[in-house]
Every structure is written in structure tokens, then in C-alpha cells.
Specification:
homodimer; alpha+beta; Aldehyde Oxidoreductase, domain 3; Aldehyde Oxidoreductase, domain 4; 4 domains; 8-stranded mixed sheet; 20 helices; 28% helix
């Protein structure tokens, strides 16, 4: 068995020795350097620009402005394209924008012989603006007369959805009637999440040049094949005219599931005769101009019967989309769907969701894609209800979680396997839940401890909301080893390693005999939409399994030509063996024969597509133990335990590493991270790693990752989503632990010292001055 | 029709603008630099080496000697491997050699932080030799007691072959009896060719590093997949552990059909922890240490009947192999075979060939692979016989050339098409042959003019002497264009362009919609043995046609899913059309649908192998008009006309360019080029482009390339060999023109001023002093 083994990462040695090549390592030097001029207003128009001084600066090759770019609006998110215009992403930006929608919008670009000259030239460009009021919050943007940020959306509402499940109880006609039934416990709540940034180590960077009349772009992306498409759209040229290469990347988390600066980089090279142009985006630009996690507010209501059964809920979510549509309504739609699915309502459910343009830096895809937000609302709410109605919080959850066989009434996604109950019980035992809950009752004094938990469900990939398609190619080497080529991407998560294990498993060879082509070159890599939605081990995994079995069949079929009398041929320990287990020929010798046979020379390879039309739910939970210093508003996380049901684990050690990373992200989301804007100008105040407070190793307890392995019948190897889930339940678990410690329910993130002091003061734990 | 059009080269713009990337352009800097220590003796042993001073030099990373390398002898020539040990190439060198066999043999290597330091370190290495007498000529090497250059061959004879065709006339038992029959004109002659170098613009250069435990080598080669194999053999590691990438290359001509320095470069990186090491071979090293054209001497005899029919010939060829086997006996075997095939003997033929180790720089593959040598002998001989026996030289040839349907008695290669008669007649007419032959009779004075000609036959690829196998891959882009990926290589000959035309022809789309992947990366490129033997348009062409038709079928089959009612689907003008010619869907739309269909998403691609089991003959001739300054021994080429039958031309303009290049090479071979060795030491005296006299543009007349297009039934598009042929007939045509001008038959190459003055003196045209 190659699947299920904790083998070391195939890229481990290169990455720890620094031998691994990232985009910037590959950039030829000297190279032309591009820099972008960003607007100093958040809402308005560029009326005019004077570039004469910049253009005259020695070393400046070209200055290009929003008046020069092609008059093409294009979509940036990394979704599969749709041939149905109704399902296409929103095209709402140009390469450089005259219509300024965020502070720091891209309005001009300089190409120069070196970075300093480019930077200096930017400072010489004079801009005249027409300025409008800054709209940072949905309420401002939706207000009468606010003015349209995009003229296609006069009310600034990018999208609104309203979904009601069928009512399962004939006594009610609407969810609202059930929510108002006095026979039930009734609950209403309001929860809010903040805007945070991915903070991947490697900022977006790319370089581009022209060759053979085509544009070649090397870039740090999660989605090379989609980058190719979007560049074609943005420049208005055939998508086959572009070649995109993706080396190793230093993190993405969804921010590199969007095509932000590659189109500009590609266009710039066409404007300087095809010379190589590098576009390196600074940390500050990454914060201000790339994507982040949507701030979403949730107004929720619930009706729970006396036995603790969830009867009905409603949820109204308002998502702050910032200045550009990015992934559009998909994220808040995912949020309200996830909110509904984890605890199916026995009578019915009503979701409403708004995505609203504002002048904030535009949020987009980020690990969890709306689910960390809704999970905060859902799991705070569960805790608050349990407390209010006198239920044990674990029992209350166990009573209501999604059952095996659940089918979503809208998208049909089915629960093919679930270990959530076991996850909760395992986590509770690991935490010593019952003992600690008892122990932490009735604390007094300034420093108190508490335990909290939260659970979640998460679908695997995007089917049927969107297309799921993946292809793979395998090529036999002359020594019997195999090249594995994919369009799916290694983005630091260990994809290359688990893909290699899957291919080895399907073919029947050791993983060390699979050589994965880590870089994707869209000219030769099979098509795959890329790394997002925790899809690759599932969707790409199915393609690998399919192609692996085809490839294995070709090996066996060639062996059958060589041994026409033999029966029951199979592959075992690098040999073709017959039904008696006798070794007939080594794979190495078989390969040499196939290559060099004078009778039948064939270069064995297999390539195929798997169109995936399945989905399933992964599950998990987080248990947190905290110590709260009430006067300082300081939360110390003492212990953190995640327990996941992601089906069968392809590589348990990598799975645990994946979980650790997500838990770390959750700590920052819970306690310290927040993009802070100047309310007057819309300028980001803390767009750097000094002022933006990511948790450091000092803020981390030991992280415990546990698993409940189910065998999902729809997964290629029994596996389900794991990439995003670990980040989901951490923030509500910590918040619920703080509630357990202090009795104070904090309903917005992050639980920063300032906010906690305010809340503890309101709650009477800190005396009013 | 895409085939047959003179479209511009697909790489033209990049190459003339300097945008095209060659190996050294791609090398990261800074990089570790390797330099090789060459022996200062030509025959002997390295007894000891003192590297202490070199190793102590600051900046030196590692000094490695012939005492450090793996104890593995490996083969260097670029042939397909054979699983039959009897047909494997000779393994007669190590990465660095203790046994020194040529002056300048590779005995140590330095890796340093920069080139100057590496060079300086070389000078600090002290070497003690055991020295043997220098053997430069076959006669010396074969002499009793000469001493073995390779201990496996005590007589220094690498190989000897002796082939007799069946005797077709019962009056004779042997060819020798027919040759001695007084009823026939009898002829005996001796012809010799010299050692020349390819003089490609780009010397061999490579760089290598380790990644993911594997070795990656970027190199200027004609045969990337074979380089991969030979590195594996030389280092004794799995062939799948090596990745070879071939960028654009600055010429090869057969010298880069051998794997000379890549194994050393690959090994050096393993000795410095996988750091990137560059190995740039100087022009001097290229002359001394890489390959060249074999000097071959021919002793020939012929019997011709009174009507001018060729009855019988014998040929004994001795090929000077220099210090290493390289392509071994294959080249002289090809020479005596080609000698036999052009004018099939009516009674019988006897060939004997010897390949002899000496201490010369080792010759190997060079454009024409033995045929320019034998063609000099064959066509001088024809001219000399015509003169001696009173035949018209054209009629004499026309009477005896290979007929349509000829089948070689040994290898079965068949003449499936021939336009040689038409070529000769077309060339004669273009030259004004009859008029000039008349005009140049009976000249006197110091400056005289003459016309001469020569013709040739040339097989296409290496089947059935060796394996011919090729594969191709095509991938549909989202805009309906196609990626074409091959293992066959563009080496400056225009391969990429004609491959693209062939793919377009097979699929039914415009050539501009085919994007060829010019670089070969052995990790992903389909297998093909590479550029040699004028094989690619024929052998790879068959693979392209096969895969193109499969790919086309997949497009049509997907279209049939979309239009189940339609009949007679075909591809026309970028659309799928039905039998009425109605346009159903554009290829661009078909592509988008196939990628993004929610019913059936498939990424259309096709990959397959063609095992080629056919061969055919190409033909042609050269007509030369010269002016000879007798006292100066100076030949001025006034006009040069090549006429070729290479079947159907894929791209007539590129075909003409190919011919021009070959004619230029032929001028140098005829008149000026020769590698001169110091007879005492074996040191090359003129191993640089100043002292080695290549013809310049001043030495060229306008070159005329004409074609007779046959439609070869075995060719994928009616095409046959063209890469090597143009270089073949030029030297004998010029020699025969000098004979026509002066009456002096020069029987060795080159016709240098010194040699001509000697010959004219012997012939009485210059008075003895």
C-alpha cells in the first residue's frame, strides 16, 4: 500500500536546502522592472495624468496609464470558465483603471531598467482625480444616493440570494412561522467577522516575455491553466497565445486562486517589444491590492424544541465585497449553505445573502471560502443557545449534526460518510472535556480558564455548483520508473507527495518510482483547474486513479505480448508476475524492451480526463482550552486539539502538518488579525507584517491533530477534503472557551485585547472608570 | 494544403531578434564553472597526479581526476539503444581517462567559483605520464607490435567487414574474376578524404544541478532522450533519475549526436552537493575533443563493358577512427554501402571495410555519415573512367544509376521513387553543360575554366540497420489551437516549422494554429531518438501524421456528440462542417465546450508511437563551374547548382535553405578544410577558426538549389531525406570541374593551393624548378 503511508515529502530535501526554485529564482537578470502607480483616493475617477517627467527619466523604458490599456473588462477569479454567460464570473476591471474603486487602485505602470528608477518614475507622475465619498461599509454603500461604485450595479448590490428549503411540517407555511412558534425555544443573534489577509510568505511575483509571437508568463499561482485563460481575456487574444509556467510557490491560501497581476505583466511585455518584464508585488501592495477574507455579518434566528432538536433557522448574511467582484457572490452563498448544512433543520431553513460593493480592498477566496465566517456564527450560536436553553453543548450538537445519507435539497451534495460524532467524542476525551467543564465552573479572580469547542462540515471540491474536471498523464521511463504530469498544483500543501503516492498505488509500484513533474507549464501540462476548494486529492485524485489504472493496463498488455502463454499477469515488487506469483520480467526490462523492441517499439504513456460528478462532506471539530487575563483583555491558548474526518488519509504525517497550519491560521483569526482602514480615506493602516498582528510561535500552544478515518465510497482512495477544513473551527472554539472562562459572549472577531476589555467592561467583569 | 507551402520559419523572428534562448542564455548566474584538464601526450597512461596546489587555490570548490571517476566504461554515440548486446555501441571511455588515447584526452576536472580560477587551477595540477609512441595513421596502428590503444582490440582494428553480393552471372564465381575479365574495361583507383570538423557556431555547452534527488541537465544536443540514457549509463544510475532539457541549439551537424560532456557535467554536480555546474567547451576543445569527419581511404576497382554498363566493382575502405570508437564501424559501413548502391553492379560487388583505432581526435557522425567520403571516391572514379574509356560522363552515369524498384540485397532498402535522371538532366540544362564542355575543351594559359558534376543516393533514416521509433503528442488549447510536442529536435534545420506544417496538414487546420513546443524536456517530451540520419521529416513525420489523424478523429468524435444528427463531419477553415459544407461549430467553440461542458468535459489530446519499418532513397546531383589559377593553385567556384529529389517538399523555401547550407559545407570540404596534426605529438595544429580554413562568403558563388519533386509512396507526405544530402556531391563535382579545366585528376581532399601546385607540377602544368 502506497496510499496511507507517512512517507517524507518528495520536495522536502530541496525545500530545506534552498535548492527548490521559486518564481523569482528563475527570473533572468538583468530584467526590466515594472512598478505600479496606485491611486491616493478610494472612490472616483482619474481625470488626467501627466507622465512627461516620468517618461523623461533616464532608465525609464515605458510609462503606461489607465488611458492606454485595452478597453476590456475581465474577470479575475480562479473559477473554471463557463460557456453559459449567466454563470460566468463578473468582468469588472481593466488592466489599469480610470474608475478608482479602492484606495491604492492600479492606475499606471512604469517599466524601467531597474527597480529604483521605476519607483522614482512613479513619484514623478502627476494625477488629477475626481473624488467621491468613501463607502467602506455595506450599509453606507446600500444607502439611497450613495452612488454606484460600478455603474452596472446602481445600488452597489453585486448579488442577492434568497433560499428557502421546503417546509417539512404542514403546520407551518414559512420558516418564520416556525421561528415564532412559542412551543419552541426561540433564539436571535448577530455575529460578525473581520477582514483578514492570507499572509503567504511569497508575495505575488511574475515575469513575462514574448517568444515565437506568444507570451510566456512565469508566475506564483495556484491555477496556471486559469491564469492562461484570464490573460487571454484581459488582452483580447487567443488563449492558446499564452503560456503560463508555475514553479514552486511560497503559499497561496486562495489569494493565488485569483488572476491579479499576471495580465498586466503579460501586457507590459507586449508594450516593450517582448522584452522580459518582472512584476514583483510588495507586501504592502499584497495587503492593499490583492485579496483577503470577506467581512460578513450574520443575523440569525432559531427555533429549538424542548428536547434540543433544531427545528428551524434563518440566516441573513451581508458580505462586504470591497471594490471588485472577485469571486462574487460565491463566497457568501457558500457561507449560508454551510451554515444550513451542518445542522439540518427539521422544519425548514431560510437563507438570505447580500454581496455588496464598497471601497474596501476587495476580498476574495481564502482558505475555507466563507465557511470560517459562517462557522463562527453557527458555532457561537450553538454555544449561546446551549447556555441559554440549558443544554449540554456537546449533547446539543451531537443531537443535531448532519446524519449519514443527508442530501442537500438544493445542490444534492450527499453525506456519503461521516465520522463527526466520533470526532467530537475523541476530541472531548483528548481534552478531558467533562472534567475541565466541571473544574472551570464558578471561577473568580482576574485570570480564569475555560474550554470551548466547535465543529464543522465542509464539502469537497465545487461540484455541482461548478465544473469539476481534471486530467493526468503518465509516461514510462526507460528504467521502469514513471513520470507523473498534472495540471494540479503543489502550493506547499504536499500535493506532489500525495499525488505520487496515489499514482504508485494505482499502478502498483513504489512511490519512489514515481517522478512527479512539479512545475506546470500550460503548453504541456494536462488541464486541471488547480489548487482550491480542497479539491485536488479528491478530484485530481480520481483522474490519477483513472489514468494510473489505464497505464497499468498498458504495461500488463505489453507484458502479455512478451509472455503470450502467461495468465493472471499483475505487477508486484517492480516485476510482472503471473498467477503463480512467478516473476516474469522486471518493469525496468519491460520498459527497455518496449522502447527498443525491433518488433513492436512503443513509448508507453497514458493521458485522460476525469469529469468528476460527485461530492461528499468532510467533518471535524476543534477543542480549545484558554486562560483569560481579564484586566489585560489577553487570551492565552493553552491547548488546541483538532479532530478531523477527512476520510482515508493518503499521508497521515502530511495530513497532520496540514492541520497544524490551519490551526495556526485559526488562532490569528480568533485573536489578533484584522485589516484596519482609515474610515476617512479608505487607506489600509496596517498593511505590513509589523503592524498586522499575525500570531507568532510564542502565541501557539502545542497543536494536536487527531483523525477519525472513515472510508468515503465516493473518494478515489476513500479520501475527502482536508486542505481548508483545519482553519474553520478554531476561532469559534476559542471564543466559546473565553465564554466558558468568563461568561462573556463576544460576538465579533477578533477577540483582541481592546475588544475584550470593552466586552468585559460591558459584562461587569471590569469596573467602569 | 499546409504541406508544400513556403511559410516563414516559426522561430524566424525570435532568432533574428536575439530573443531565442540557447543553453547558455538559460544558465543561472552566478554558477559554478567546470574546466577540464587535457593530456599533453597522445598515447599512454596517467601514472599519478598532484592536485594539492589546485585544490588549495581560493575559489576552487573541487578537483576531480581520472582516479576519482566511477569505474564504468560507457558508449557515447547517439544511436537508439539495443537490448541485444551484440548491437550495442562500444563502451570504451570513462568520465575521465587514465588511459590516454588522444592528445588532449580528458584526465581531470576542476569546479570553481569562476572560470578564471578554474583555469588557473588546471595549470597547478601536476601530471606524471607513461608515454607510448604516437599512432596517427591506420597503417601505423595496424603494424605488428604497434601496441593496443584499447586493450580489448590488440590489433587496433575496431571492426572489419567483408561483404559480397550474390554473383548474377554464372560465368564468374567471384567479383575479382569479373574485374579481371579482359572483355571489360578495367579500372583501379585510390581516393582519400581528409578529417574535417563540423564548425557549428555554438560549441558544446551544458549546465547541470540536482533537484528532488534527480539530476537535471540543460544542454546543446541533437538527441536529448539519448543524452538521458547515456548519462544514466555513465554514472551507473537509473535512466529515469536524469532529466535532460534541450533549448534552441546553434548547429550540430552530427557532432551533437554524440553524448560527450553531459555525463561529466552531470557527475560533477553530484560531487558538489547538487549545486549548479556549468561546463562550457571552448572552440579549441571542440576541435580537439569532440567529433569530426572520418578520413577514409578507398581502393577501388571496376569492370565496365564496352557499352558503358557497370559490371562489377570492389572497394576497400580504411577508416581512421582516432582514439575512441564513437559511432564505430557504422560510418565506414555506410560508406561502402552507399558506394555500392548508387550504381548497382550487374555482376556483383565486393566491399571490405576496416575501422582502425589511432591516436587522432576521434571522428564520429557528421552530416552525410560516411557518404561524402564514398561519394568522393565513387564520383571521381566515374569521371576518371568516363575519361579513360571515352564515355560521356553524363550518359555513363545515366546508364548506371540505381533504377526504380532497386532492392538492396543486404538490408532490403528499396527505391520507392527516383527523380535522379531528371535531376541530372535539369542540372545539366541549368548549367549549360553541353555548351560549356565544348567551350572548355583545349584551353591553354595559366587560368582555365571547367565544369564538373557528381550525383548521389542517400537513404532516409536508419531502418533496418537500427531501430526507427518516434512519438508525438498533441493537446487542444482552449481557443481551438493545438500544442504539438515532440521528442524530435529543432537543430537549426527548420524542423519546428515543417513539423508544425505536417501536424496542421494531418489535423486539417492552418499551420499558424499549431504551437510547437520547441524545447525538449525528457520528463515530459514524447520519446524520439532525435535529429540525425535525415530521419525526422520521414520518421517523426510518420508519427506526426499518425497522431494528427488520431487527434482529428477525437475532435470529430466530440463534434458528433454535439451534433448527433449531422453526417459527414469534417474540419474546414477552423470549423466543423457537415457533408453539405455547412459550418456547425468553430474549433474554438468546440474546444471551449469540451473543456467546460457540464455534461462531458474532456481535455482532448492524443499521443502515440510510430514504429517505422520503412526506408527509401533520396537522390540528387551537383554541377560546378570553376576557374583555376594554375600557378597559384587557386580554385574559384564560379557557379554551383544542386538539384535534389527529396520527394515532396514540405516547405520549399526551407528546403532551399537546407541545400544552400550543405553546398557551403561542400565547398569547404572540397577546397580548404583539413584538421592538421603534429605528426610527432598528435597535437592538433589548427584547432581554431583562424587557422582552420572554412570558406567565407567571399569564397562562395551564388548558390542555386533546384528540385525534382517525386511523391514517395513510403513517405508520410511523399517526402524523403534532405538534411544531409546537400553536402554530399559538392566536393567531387568541384574536383571533376578542376579535372575538366586542367586535365589533372586530384584524388584526395582538400584541393588546397599547396596540393594543387604539387599536382599541377606532377601533371606538367607547372614547370619543375
Amino acid at each position: 500500500m502506497e496510499v496511507g503511508r507517512s512517507i517524507p515529502r518528495v520536495d522536502a530535501a530541496d525545500k530545506v536546502t534552498g535548492r527548490a526554485k521559486y518564481t523569482d529564482d528563475l527570473c533572468p537578470r538583468p530584467v526590466l522592472e515594472a512598478k505600479i502607480l496606485h491611486s491616493t483616493i478610494a472612490n472616483g475617477w482619474v481625470k488626467s495624468m501627466d507622465i512627461s517627467a516620468a517618461q523623461a527619466l533616464p532608465g525609464v523604458v515605458k510609462v503606461l496609464t489607465c488611458f492606454d490599456v485595452p478597453d476590456i473588462q475581465y474577470p479575475t477569479p480562479g473559477h473554471p470558465w463557463s460557456v453559459d454567460p449567466k454563470h460566468q464570473d463578473v468582468s469588472d476591471r481593466k488592466l489599469l483603471n480610470r474608475r478608482v474603486r479602492i484606495y491604492g487602485d492600479d492606475i499606471a505602470a512604469v517599466v524601467a531598467e531597474d527597480e529604483l528608477t521605476a519607483q522614482h518614475a512613479l513619484e514623478l507622475i502627476k494625477v488629477e482625480y475626481e473624488e467621491y465619498p468613501v463607502l467602506l461599509e455595506p450599509e453606507q454603500a446600500m444607502a439611497e444616493g450613495a452612488g454606484a461604485i460600478h455603474e452596472e450595479r446602481p445600488d452597489n448590490i453585486l448579488a442577492k440570494m434568497d433560499l428557502r428549503t421546503p417546509i417539512a411540517d404542514s403546520r407551518y407555511e414559512t420558516v418564520e412561522q416556525a421561528l415564532a412558534d412559542p412551543a419552541f425555544h426561540q433564539f436571535r443573534g448577530h455575529y460578525e467577522t473581520q477582514q483578514v489577509q492570507h499572509c503567504h510568505i511569497e508575495n505575488p511575483v511574475s515575469f513575462a516575455w514574448m517568444e515565437a509571437g506568444r507570451i510566456r508568463v512565469i508566475t506564483s499561482t495556484q491555477i496556471p491553466h486559469i491564469v492562461r485563460r484570464v490573460i487571454g481575456q484581459a488582452l483580447g487574444i487567443g488563449w492558446g497565445q499564452i503560456q503560463v509556467v508555475k514553479p514552486y510557490i511560497g503559499g497561496g491560501f486562495g489569494n493565488k486562486q485569483e488572476v491579479l497581476y499576471e495580465p498586466l505583466n503579460a501586457w507590459l511585455t507586449t508594450q516593450v517589444g517582448g522584452r522580459c518584464v518582472r512584476l514583483d508585488v510588495s507586501r504592502e501592495e499584497t495587503f492593499q491590492n490583492t485579496r483577503s477574507r470577506h467581512p460578513i455579518s450574520f443575523d440569525v434566528a432559531a427555533a429549538v424544541d424542548q428536547e434540543g432538536h433544531m427545528m428551524a433557522r434563518s440566516c441573513t448574511a451581508i458580505s462586504n465585497q470591497g471594490g471588485y467582484a472577485s469571486h462574487g457572490n460565491a463566497i457568501v452563498a457558500n457561507a449560508v449553505t454551510g451554515f444550513r448544512q451542518l445542522y439540518p433543520d427539521r422544519i425548514g431553513h431560510h437563507s438570505t445573502a447580500y454581496t455588496v460593493y464598497t471601497n474596501r480592498p476587495a476580498p476574495g477566496a481564502m482558505r475555507g471560502y466563507g465557511i470560517p465566517q459562517c462557522n463562527f456564527a453557527a458555532e457561537c450560536m450553538m454555544e449561546d443557545m446551549a447556555l441559554q436553553f440549558g443544554f449540554d453543548p456537546l449533547t446539543f450538537r451531537l443531537e443535531n449534526i448532519m446524519p449519514l445519507g443527508y442530501v442537500d435539497p438544493f445542490n444534492g451534495i450527499t453525506c456519503h460518510s461521516t465520522g463527526l460524532r466520533e470526532c467530537i467524542l475523541k476530541g472531548a476525551e483528548a481534552m478531558g472535556w467533562d472534567k475541565l467543564r466541571e473544574q472551570y465552573k464558578n471561577q473568580t479572580g482576574p485570570v480564569r480558564r475555560g474550554v470551548g469547542m466547535a465543529c464543522f462540515s465542509y464539502k469537497t471540491g465545487v461540484y455541482p455548483i461548478s465544473l469539476e474536471t481534471s486530467s493526468a498523464r503518465m509516461v514510462l521511463n526507460q528504467d521502469g520508473t514513471v513520470q507523473l504530469q498534472l495540471g494540479a498544483t503543489e502550493i506547499g500543501q504536499g500535493g506532489d507527495t500525495v499525488f505520487s503516492q496515489m499514482a504508485a498505488e494505482a499502478i502498483g509500484i513504489p512511490t519512489e518510482d514515481v517522478h512527479i513533474v512539479s512545475f506546470q507549464d500550460t503548453d504541456t501540462a494536462p488541464f486541471d483547474t488547480g489548487a482550491y476548494a480542497s479539491r485536488q486529492t479528491y478530484v485530481t485524485g480520481k483522474a490519477i486513479k483513472k489514468v494510473g489504472l489505464e497505464f497499468r493496463e498498458k504495461l500488463l498488455s505489453y507484458a502479455a505480448e512478451l509472455f503470450p502463454e502467461a495468465e493472471g499477469l499483475t505487477i508486484s515488487e517492480r516485476f510482472i508476475t503471473d498467477k503463480a506469483g512467478e516473476k516474469l520480467i522486471s518493469l525496468a526490462e519491460l520498459a527497455l524492451t518496449a522502447f527498443y523492441s525491433l518488433e513492436h517499439s512503443v513509448h508507453i504513456s497514458a493521458e485522460d480526463t476525469n469529469h468528476c460528478k460527485e461530492n461528499t462532506f468532510a467533518f471535524g471539530c476543534c477543542f480549545a482550552e484558554v486562560e483569560v487575563d481579564i484586566p489585560l483583555g489577553k487570551v492565552k491558548v493553552l491547548r488546541l486539539i483538532n479532530v478531523h474526518d477527512s476520510g482515508k488519509l493518503i499521508n497521515p504525517a502530511l495530513a497532520a502538518a496540514q492541520v497544524h497550519g490551519g490551526m495556526s491560521m485559526g488562532i490569528g483569526y480568533a485573536l489578533s488579525e484584522e485589516m484596519k482602514l482609515d474610515p476617512k480615506t479608505g487607506r489600509l493602516l496596517n498593511g505590513n507584517l509589523l503592524d498586522y498582528k499575525m500570531p507568532t510561535s510564542m502565541d501557539h500552544p502545542d497543536l494536536t491533530a487527531l483523525f477519525v478515518e472513515t472510508d468515503d465510497p465516493s473518494g478515489p482512495f476513500g479520501n475527502k477534503a482536508l486542505g481548508e477544513p483545519p482553519a474553520i473551527p478554531v476561532a469559534p472554539a476559542i471564543r466559546n472557551a473565553v465564554l466558558n472562562a468568563t461568561g462573556v459572549a463576544v460576538n465579533s472577531l477578533p477577540l483582541s485585547p481592546q475588544k475584550l476589555v470593552e466586552e468585559f467592561t460591558k459584562g461587569g467583569l471590569i469596573g467602569h472608570v
